[in-house]
Amino acid sequence: MLFRRSRNGLNFSKTKKFQKDFSSFIGALDQFHGNFLLDQSGTVLRETISKTPVDTGDLKKSWEMSGLKKTENGYMVRIKNKMNYASWVEEGHMTVGINPRWIVGRFMHKAALLNMDRRFKRDYDKGFKKLTKIYGVSK
Predict the structure, then answer these.
(1) Which of 7, 10, 51, 103 reaches 20 to 30 Å from 127, CA-CA?
(2) What is the phi-psi region of residue 20: left when phi exceeds 0, alpha when psi lies from -120 to 50, beta otherwise?
(3) pLDDT tens column, 80-130
């Protein structure tokens, strides 16, 4: 019960405590979401780098991740490669010359994103369950 009757009317002290506790939980949940996205993005970046083929090493060294940005719909992290030919290696490309041929893409970033998709729900649920246990929200 969030309030109880007393001789002087209604006592809302439990309601105020609930409101304070809920507010703390919402703040912690927001922080959890940001940290979770950074962690998942870091894993994607590491996997992408490890799958990137090496010729001169420039492509592999050029992967970078932006910082965490809060948007109106949640959070955003951007992973990109500043080398102008990165998309050709990722997705494949056609050579030019006397015998043009298709060079198959390596899909290093796409593969890392697919791996993240496979483990995302499991990892999120595990972290969320831990958070709700700390705040006494779960059963």
Answers:
(1) 51
(2) alpha
(3) 999 999 999 999 999 999 999 999 999 999 999 999 999 999 999 999 999
